[in-house]
C-alpha cells in the first residue's frame, strides 16, 4: 500500500542506484512479515525507472515456480526482452552452448548470466536489478544453496545487482554467514524497529478499514473504525503483515461484527510469535466449520477441499479442482465462501486458480499441535487425489485423444488437440499421490486394495492411451520414473504389469517421444509376445505390422533409462547395499541415482572442471571418490552431496583410476603424470611421497585384499608392487609385456597379480617374487583392455578392444577353460563378474551389453540393446540381479538379469564380422569370409548354407575369391596362409603357406584359373600355381605399406595392387616387373582395386572416401574422383557390362555409380548396421552382394531403371495406402514392401523422369526409421532388429538372425487410426 514501508523502500532505491553498493541485497524475515509485498513494490518502482532486469517469484508446491532450475532461464528471457545488447550476447553464448538452459546450476549462472552480461556491458557499473522472491519456497534446498553460492561468488564481477528475499532458513542463512559488505548486504525484516513496522501496519489497517466502510454496506457506528480498534489490531499483528492482511479479508464479509470479534480476543503477554496468527486462523476456520451452523458432511467436504488445495502438485483452476474432487464448481464456491480470508478464489469465472494466500496457512492446518480440531492430514488429500486421478483417467482416456491426423509426421510437425489440463494433471501426478496415500498406516487395508484394484483395471485397459497423453504433452521423459515410483507400493500382480509397462517405455522411449501414432504402429508390434502389454493390446490393434524374427529373443531387459548427464558417462558403480548408482561423466559431474526408480537422489555433485574418468563407493557406502582429468580426486558425502573436504590435488596429469582401501581409510589414484598417490581420507593428505618409478602414464591401480600393498600398470610396459606404508617398491618391476599395460588386479587371496596388455596377452605373476607363474595366456590378435577376477580367484577374465573377444583362463593350469565368446561387433570396453561368479557381462563399442555363462562360454540372453553410443562402463548390483551401464550417449541404464527369456538358438551363420564376399560363376551361390575364421557358402535365393563351414584357418579370413569355373574357392587369412577349397564338397584342396607373421590381406584368381595372386601385410605380392601351390615368381616388391588388394587384368597379363602407401601399382604377371609408374592421387590407404571388364580402366577405392578411375595405358585419371561416401571406401566392383561401379563403405552404405558420369544412379543402399567391408556383382549383373561388420551378407537388386526401360510402369508407393500390395502376405518370401518380386519397378514422375519405385522409401539402420520420399515417418524398427531387417532393394539377408515383416494389415499416414480394432476387425 502506498505510504507503507517508505523508509525501507527508500533504502532499496538508494541501493539500486548506487553503483558502489553491494551487488546482492538479501531481505529476510519470518513468514508473513511482508517480504513478497516489498519485492513486488520494488519491481514496480524499478520498472518505472527502467532498472528492472527481471523477476522470479517462487511459490511452494507450484510445479513451475518451485523449481530452482527454472529461475535463471526465466531471468535470462526477461533480460533478453529488456536489453538488445544482452540479447545479442546471449545468442552468441547459446550458439556455443545450445543446452545452457538445461546445464547444471553453476553452469547456468556462468552461461546465462555472467558471460552474456560481461559481453554486453564490459567494464560497466550495474544499472539493472534482478529480483528473486521467496527462495525458501523452492523444493530443493541443496540446489538453492548451490545457486546462491554461485551468484554471490560471481556478483562482484558481473554488471548487475540481485535483490533476494526469503525466510531465514539455515541453508540460505549459511551463504550469508560472513559479513562481506562489498559483496552482499543482509537486512532482517523482523528486526527493523518495531515502531516503524507498527506504523506501517497501522496505516495499512486504517486505510483498508476506511475502504471497507466505503464499499461494503453495513450498519456502521459513527466512529467506525475506532482508533482503539486500529491500535488493537496493530498490536495483535505485531511484526506480521500477513496477520493484518488476513484480518482485513476476514472482516470484509461482516465488518462491524467481525471487527468486534477479532479485537475482543484476549492477548496473552509473551505468547509465541506464531500464536497471534494461529488464533486468527482458528477464528476463521471456527466459523467455516462450526458444528452449530454446519452439517457434518459439510464440514467433511470443507476439509476435503482444503486438503486437496494444500496437496495438489500445482495450483488448479477452479474448474479443474472441481473435476478432481468430483464436486461442482458452485458447491466448491459455496464451501469456500467463508474462507476468502485465507483462500484465493477467482471472483468472476471458473478458469482462475484456487490457492492459499500465504504458506503459513498450510503450515498451520497440517500441524496437529497448532490446528488441533482443524488439523488436516495431507495423506487424506493425497488419497482423494489419487482416487480422483484414476477415475479421471478411466473416464477420459481414449485412443487418439491427441487427435493427430497423420502418422507420417512427428507430434511437433502437425497440429493436435490440446489435452485438457485436468487430464494432463491426472496422468502426470497419480503416482505421486498414490505413493503418499499408501504410506504405512495411512489407509485401512481394504481402502488400499480398492485403490490398487481400480488402478490396475485402468492401466490394463488404458496404459497406451496414458502414454499418448505424455507424448502429446512432451512429458515422456518422466514416464519411466512415474511407473517405477508406483512400483514401490503395489501388489505382486500389478507389479508384473508395471514392470512390463516400464520395459515398453524404456525400450521404445525415442519413438514414443517423437510420435504418438507410432506408440501403436511401431512400438506396440515390436515387443515380446510374452509381455503383458502385448497380451492386453495386440488383440485390439490388428492392423499393425507383425515382426517375424528368427534367432532373436524379443524380451527386453532394460529396467531404467536414466538421462541426466549431458555428455558421455565414463564410469558407473553400485553402492555396497545396491540401493544407489554413482556415475561419472565427461560433463564434469558425478551423479547419484536411486537404483530402483532412476530418480536423482541428490543434485549433481559439481566441482570437477574436466571429465570425470572414475568413480568408486567407499566400503560403507558413505562416500564416493571421483578422479578427473582436472588432476584432482574429490570425496563426496553420499547423503548431502557435499564435498567432504577440499579436493585432493597434487597430480600433474589426468587421473585414470581411483580405489578405496578395504578398510575405507585410504584412497589411491593413478595418473598420467606417471605417479601413484595414497591419500588419507580423514587428513586429506598424502600418507607417503608420490610413488614414482614408472616411465609412462599409470593406467590402473589396485589394493591387495589385505590393504598392505598396491599394484600398478603403466604405459612403460611394467608392473610394480608397492608397500602402502613405506611408499616404495617391494620387488623388482615385473617385465615381459611388449605393449602398454591397461589393467592390473590382485587375485582375491592376494597370491597372484594378473595383467592385461596391448601385446594381446594376459600374464599371471607371483605377487611375492614377481616371477611369471604361467606362460602368457594368448589366443588374441589385439590389445587387452580390461581384466577381472571372480571372488574365489579361480579364473581370469580378460577383454580385447580390437579382436572383439573375451577369454576366461584357469589360474591353476595354463589353459583356457572355455573358448572365447564371440559375437561382438567393435571393441569390448568394459567387463564385470556377477557376485556369484556364474556370469560375465561385457559392454562394447557396438552399444550392446552381453551376458555369458562363465562355465560354458554361452550367452545366457540376447544382447541388451538400447544405448546409442559406446558402453564405457558396466557393473553388477551386489545381489547380482541387475546390471548398470554408462554410455557415450550420456545415459545410465539399469538392466534386469532375472527377466531374460531363454536364449533362442541363432540360425547358422557367421558369428563375427564379414570381411569378404564373392559370387560363384553361376551366380546361384555366394562365398563369404569372416573374423570367425570360417568360409561359408550360401544359396542366393534361400539364404541357406549349401555346405558345412570351411574351417581350418587359425586367424580371421580377410579375403575370398572364386575360380572362373566355379569349382574352387581361395581364402586368405591373418594366419599367414592361402587355402584352396573344393566348392562342392568343402574339402581343403591346397594350403599355400607364406609366413605365420604375415597376414594375407587379399587373394584373386587369374581369368583362366591357373594362377592365384595374394597381397600381404609384409608389403609383397605373390603369384602361385593354382594346381601345385608353388610360387611362380619371386615376391613382387615396391609398395611401402601393406597390400590391401590385388586383381588380375581380364586377359591375365597384368596384376594391379592397392596399398597402405596410398598408391596403385601395375605389374607384368609374367615377369613380376612394374609396367608403369605408381598411380598416385589418393591421400590415404588404397583398400580396393579392380579392372573394368574390357581391361581399359582400373578403379581404386581408398580410406580418403573417394573412388578413382585410371586409364590403364597412360596411368592418368579419366574423371574426377567419385565422392559421396562419408567414411572410408573398403570395396568396389564393376558391373559385368562395365557401366556401373558398386562400392561399400565404413558409412554402412552401398552405393552404385555411373562410370561415364561419375554420378550415383540410385539412392544409397542401406540396411547394414556396421561398416560394409566387401561388395560384388553377380555374373549377370542383376544382384549385388555386400558383407559387413554386422555379421550379415545382404543381396540387393542390381537392376538399374533407365528412361528407355521397357519394364512395366507402376504407380509410386502412396504413403496413405491402407492396403499395401498383397504380394507381401508371405513375409518369409517377401519381407518388406520395397523388396518386390518384380526385379525392375519404375515410376513416372511429373517431370517425365523414370525412377525406381523402391527409391520412394529409405531405411536408416542407425536411427531405425523407415522414411518416405519426403522424410515421412513410415515405421520405426527396434534396435535389436535393425541389423537384420530387409532394406530398399534388399532381396535377402544372410546371417545368424533374420527379421521380416508382415505388412498385410498395416495402415499408416492419414488412415493410421484404422489400426485400432477394439472389436477384432481388421483390414485384411
Task: List its traits.
1324 residues, alpha+beta, 5-stranded parallel β-sheet, 4-stranded antiparallel β-sheet, 26 helices, 23% helix, elongated
Overall geometric form: elongated
Low-pLDDT residue spans: 267-273, 777-785, 790-795, 799-827, 900-906, 1203-1253
| Largest sheet report | 5 strands, parallel
Helical content, roughly?
Answer: 10-25%
Task: Name the quaternary structure.
Answer: single chain
**Compute the gyration radius: what is it?**
37 Å
* Number of helical regions: 26
Structural class estimated from helices and strands: alpha+beta
Strand share of the residues? 25-35%
Overall mean pLDDT score?
82
Distance between the termini: 73 Å
Number of β-strand runs? 68
Strand order of the largest sheet: 2-3-4-1-5
Offer a concise description of the structure:
By secondary structure, this protein is of the alpha+beta class. It contains 26 helices and 68 strands. Residues 267-273, 777-785, 790-795, 799-827, 900-906 and 1203-1253 have low confidence and may be disordered.
Explain how this protein is built:
The structure is a single chain. The protein has 26 helices and 68 strands. By secondary structure, it is of the alpha+beta class. Helix 8 (194-215) runs parallel beside helix 10 (241-251). The chain is elongated and about 130 Å long. The model is unreliable at 267-273, 777-785, 790-795, 799-827, 900-906 and 1203-1253 (pLDDT under 50). Residues 23-168 form the NACHT domain. Keywords: Repeat, WD repeat.
Amino acid at each position: 500500500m502506498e505510504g507503507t514501508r517508505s523508509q525501507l523502500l527508500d533504502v532499496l532505491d538508494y541501493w539500486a542506484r548506487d553503483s558502489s553498493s553491494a551487488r546482492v541485497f538479501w531481505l529476510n524475515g519470518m513468514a508473513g512479515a511482508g517480504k513478497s509485498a516489498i519485492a513486488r513494490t520494488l519491481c514496480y518502482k524499478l520498472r518505472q525507472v527502467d532498472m528492472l532486469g527481471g523477476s522470479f517469484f517462487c511459490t511452494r508446491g507450484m510445479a513451475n515456480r518451485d523449481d530452482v532450475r527454472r529461475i535463471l532461464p526465466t531471468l535470462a528471457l526477461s533480460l533478453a526482452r529488456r536489453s538488445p545488447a544482452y540479447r545479442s550476447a546471449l545468442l552468441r553464448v547459446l550458439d556455443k552452448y545450445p543446452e545452457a538452459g538445461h546445464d547444471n546450476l553453476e553452469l547456468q549462472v556462468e552461461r546465462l548470466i555472467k558471460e552474456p552480461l560481461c559481453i554486453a556491458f564490459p567494464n560497466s557499473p550495474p544499472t539493472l536489478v534482478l529480483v528473486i522472491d521467496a527462495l525458501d519456497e523452492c523444493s530443493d534446498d541443496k540446489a538453492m544453496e548451490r545457486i546462491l553460492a554461485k551468484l554471490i561468488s560471481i556478483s562482484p564481477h558481473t554488471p548487475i545487482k540481485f535483490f533476494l528475499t526469503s525466510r531465514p532458513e539455515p541453508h540460505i542463512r549459511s551463504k550469508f554467514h560472513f559479513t562481506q559488505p562489498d559483496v552482499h548486504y543482509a537486512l532482517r525484516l523482523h528486526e527493523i524497529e518495531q515502531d516503524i513496522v507498527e506504523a506501517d501496519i497501522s496505516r495499512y489497517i486504517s486505510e483498508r478499514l476506511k475502504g471497507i466502510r466505503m464499499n461494503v454496506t453495513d450498519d456502521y457506528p459513527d466512529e467506525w473504525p475506532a482508533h482503539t480498534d486500529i491500535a488493537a489490531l496493530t498490536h495483535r499483528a505485531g511484526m506480521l503483515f500477513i496477520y493484518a492482511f488476513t484480518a482485513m479479508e476476514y472482516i470484509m464479509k461482516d465488518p462491524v461484527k467481525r471487527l468486534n470479534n477479532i479485537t475482543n480476543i484476549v492477548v496473552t503477554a509473551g505468547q509465541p510469535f506464531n500464536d497471534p496468527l494461529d488464533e486468527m486462523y482458528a477464528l476463521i476456520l471456527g466459523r467455516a466449520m462450526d458444528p452449530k451452523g454446519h452439517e457434518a458432511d459439510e464440514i467433511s467436504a470443507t476439509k476435503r477441499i482444503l486438503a486437496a488445495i494444500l496437496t495438489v502438485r500445482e495450483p488448479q483452476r477452479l474448474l479443474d479442482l472441481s473435476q478432481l474432487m468430483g464436486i461442482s464448481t458452485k458447491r466448491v464456491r459455496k464451501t469456500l465462501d467463508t474462507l476468502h480470508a485465507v483462500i484465493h478464489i477467482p471472483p468472476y469465472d471458473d478458469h482462475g486458480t484456487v490457492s492459499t494466500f500465504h504458506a503459513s496457512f498450510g503450515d498451520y492446518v497440517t500441524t496437529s499441535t497448532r490446528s488441533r480440531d482443524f488439523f488436516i492430514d495431507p495423506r487424506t488429500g493425497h488419497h482423494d487425489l489419487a482416487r480422483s486421478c484414476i477415475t479421471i483417467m478411466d473416464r477420459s482416456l481414449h485412443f487418439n485423444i491427441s487427435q493427430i491426423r497423420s502418422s507420417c509426421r512427428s507430434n511437433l510437425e502437425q497440429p493436435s488437440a490440446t489435452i485438457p489440463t485436468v487430464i494432463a494433471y491426472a496422468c502426470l501426478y497419480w503416482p505421486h499421490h498414490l505413493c503418499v496415500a499408501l504410506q504405512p498406516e495411512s489407509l485401512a487395508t481394504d481402502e488400499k486394495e480398492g485403490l490398487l484394484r481400480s488402478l490396475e483395471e485402468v492401466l490394463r485397459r488404458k496404459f497406451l492411451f496414458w502414454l499418448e497423453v505424455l507424448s502429446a504433452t512432451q512429458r515422456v521423459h518422466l514416464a519411466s520414473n512415474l511407473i517405477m515410483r508406483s512400483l514401490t507400493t503395489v501388489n505382486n500382480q500389478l507389479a508384473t504389469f508395471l514392470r512390463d509397462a516400464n520395459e515398453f517405455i524404456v525400450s521404445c522411449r525415442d519413438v514414443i517421444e517423437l510420435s504418438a501414432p507410432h506408440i501403436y504402429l511401431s512400438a506396440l508390434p515390436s515387443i515380446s509376445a510374452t509381455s503383458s502389454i502385448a497380451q492386453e493390446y495386440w488383440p485390439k490393434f490388428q492392423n499393425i505390422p507383425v515382426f517375424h524374427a528368427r534367432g532373436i529373443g524379443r524380451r527386453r531387459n532394460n529396467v531404467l533409462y536414466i538421462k541426466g548427464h549431458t555428455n558421455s558417462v565414463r564410469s558407473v558403480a553400485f553402492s555396497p547395499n545396491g540401493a544407489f548408482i554413482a556415475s561419472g561423466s565427461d560433463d564434469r559431474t558425478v551423479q547419484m541415482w536411486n537404483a530402483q526408480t532412476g530418480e536423482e537422489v541428490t543434485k549433481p555433485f559439481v566441482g570437477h572442471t574436466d571429465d570425470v574418468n572414475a568413480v568408486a563407493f567407499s566400503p560403507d557406502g558413505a562416500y564416493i571418490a571421483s578422479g578427473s582429468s582436472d588432476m584432482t580426486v574429490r570425496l563426496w558425502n553420499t547423503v548431502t552431496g557435499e564435498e567432504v573436504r577440499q579436493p585432493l590435488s597434487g597430480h600433474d596429469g589426468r587421473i585414470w583410476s581411483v580405489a578405496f582401501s578395504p578398510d575405507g581409510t585410504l584412497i589411491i589414484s593413478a595418473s598420467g603424470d606417471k605417479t601413484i598417490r595414497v591419500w588419507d581420507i580423514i587428513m586429506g593428505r598424502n600418507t607417503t611421497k608420490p610413488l614414482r618409478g614408472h616411465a609412462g602414464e599409470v593406467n590402473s591401480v589396485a589394493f591387495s585384499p589385505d590393504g598392505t600393498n598396491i599394484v600398478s600398470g603403466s604405459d612403460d610396459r611394467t608392473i610394480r608392487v608397492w608397500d602402502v606404508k613405506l611408499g616404495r617398491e617391494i620387488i623388482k618391476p615385473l617385465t615381459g609385456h611388449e605393449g602398454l599395460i591397461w589393467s592390473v588386479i590382485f587375485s582375491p587371496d592376494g597370491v597372484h597379480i594378473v595383467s592385461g596388455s596391448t601385446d594381446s596377452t594376459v600374464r599371471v605373476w607371483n605377487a611375492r617374487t614377481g616371477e611369471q607363474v604361467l606362460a602368457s595366456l594368448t589366443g588374441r590378435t589385439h590389445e587387452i583392455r580390461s581384466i577381472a577376477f571372480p571372488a574365489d580367484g579361480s579364473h581370469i577374465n580378460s577383454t580385447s578392444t580390437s579382436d572383439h573377444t573375451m577369454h576366461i583362463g584357469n589360474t591353476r593350469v595354463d589353459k583356457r577353460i572355455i573358448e572365447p565368446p564371440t559375437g561382438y561387433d567393435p571393441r569390448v570396453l568394459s567387463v564385470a563378474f556377477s557376485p556369484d561368479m556364474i556370469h560375465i557381462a561385457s559392454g562394447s563399442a557396438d552399444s550392446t551389453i552381453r551376458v555369458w555363462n562363465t562355465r560354458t562360454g554361452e550367452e545366457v540372453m540376447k544382447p541388451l540393446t538400447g544405448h546409442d553410443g559406446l558402453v564405457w562402463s558396466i557393473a553388477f548390483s551386489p545381489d547380482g540381479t541387475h546390471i548398470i551401464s554408462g554410455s557415450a550417449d550420456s545415459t545410465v541404464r539399469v538392466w534386469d538379469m532375472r527377466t531374460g527369456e531363454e536364449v533362442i538358438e541363432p540360425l547358422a551363420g557367421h558369428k563375427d564380422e564379414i570381411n569378404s564376399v564373392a559370387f560363384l560363376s553361376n551366380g546361384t551361390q555366394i562365398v563369404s569370409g569372416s573374423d570367425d575364421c570360417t568360409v561359408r557358402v550360401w544359396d542366393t535365393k534361400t539364404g541357406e548354407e549349401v555346405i558345412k563351414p570351411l574351417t581350418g584357418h587359425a586367424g580371421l579370413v580377410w579375403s575370398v575369391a572364386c575360380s572362373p569355373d566355379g569349382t574352387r574357392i581361395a581364402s586368405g587369412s591373418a594366419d599367414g596362409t592361402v587355402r584352396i577349397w573344393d566348392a562342392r564338397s568343402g574339402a581343403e584342396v591346397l594350403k599355400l603357406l607364406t609366413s605365420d607373421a604375415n597376414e594375407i590381406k587379399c587373394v584373386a584368381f587369374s581369368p583362366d584359373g591357373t594362377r592365384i595372386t595374394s597381397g600381404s601385410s609384409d608389403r609383397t605380392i605373390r603369384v602361385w600355381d593354382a594346381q601345385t601351390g608353388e610360387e611362380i615368381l619371386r615376391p613382387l616388391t615396391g609398395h611401402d605399406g601393406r597390400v590391401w588388394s590385388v586383381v588380375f587384368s581380364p586377359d591375365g597379363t597384368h596384376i594391379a595392387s592397392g596399398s597402405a602407401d596410398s598408391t596403385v601399382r601395375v605389374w607384368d604377371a609374367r615377369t613380376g616387373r612394374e609396367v608403369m609408374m605408381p598411380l598416385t592421387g589418393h591421400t590415404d590407404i588404397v583398400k580396393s582395386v579392380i579392372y573394368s571388364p574390357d581391361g581399359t580402366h582400373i578403379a581404386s577405392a581408398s580410406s580418403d572416401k573417394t573412388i578413382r578411375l585410371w586409364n590403364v595405358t597412360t596411368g592418368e585419371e579419366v574423371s574426377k574422383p567419385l565422392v559421396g561416401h562419408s567414411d572410408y571406401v573398403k570395396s568396389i566392383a564393376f558391373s559385368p557390362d562395365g557401366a556401373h561401379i558398386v562400392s561399400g563403405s565404413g558409412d554402412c552404405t552401398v552405393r552404385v555409380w555411373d562410370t561415364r558420369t561419375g554420378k550415383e544412379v540410385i539412392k544409397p543402399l542401406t540396411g547394414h548396421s556396421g561398416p560394409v567391408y566387401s561388395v560384388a556383382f553377380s555374373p549377370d549383373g542383376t544382384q549385388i552382394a555386400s558383407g559387413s561388420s554386422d555379421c550379415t551378407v545382404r543381396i540387393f537388386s542390381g537392376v538399374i531403371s533407365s528412361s528407355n526401360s521397357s519394364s512395366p510402369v507402376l504407380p509410386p508407393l502412396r504413403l496413405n495406402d491402407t492396403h499395401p500390395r498383397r504380394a507381401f502376405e508371405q513375409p518369409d518370401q517377401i519381407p518388406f514392401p520395397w523388396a518386390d518380386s518384380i526385379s525392375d519397378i519404375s515410376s513416372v514422375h511429373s517431370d517425365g523422369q523414370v525412377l525406381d519405385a523402391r527409391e520412394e522409401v529409405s531405411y536408416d539402420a542407425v536411427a531405425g526409421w523407415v522414411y518416405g520420399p519426403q522424410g515421412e515417418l513410415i515405421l520405426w524398427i527396434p534396435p535389436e532388429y535393425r541389423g537384420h531387417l530387409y532394406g530398399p532393394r534388399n532381396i535377402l539377408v544372410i546371417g545368424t538372425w533374420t527379421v521380416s515383416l508382415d505388412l498385410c494389415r498395416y495402415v499408416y499416414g492419414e488412415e493410421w487410426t484404422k489400426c485400432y480394432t477394439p472389436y477384432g476387425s481388421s483390414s485384411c
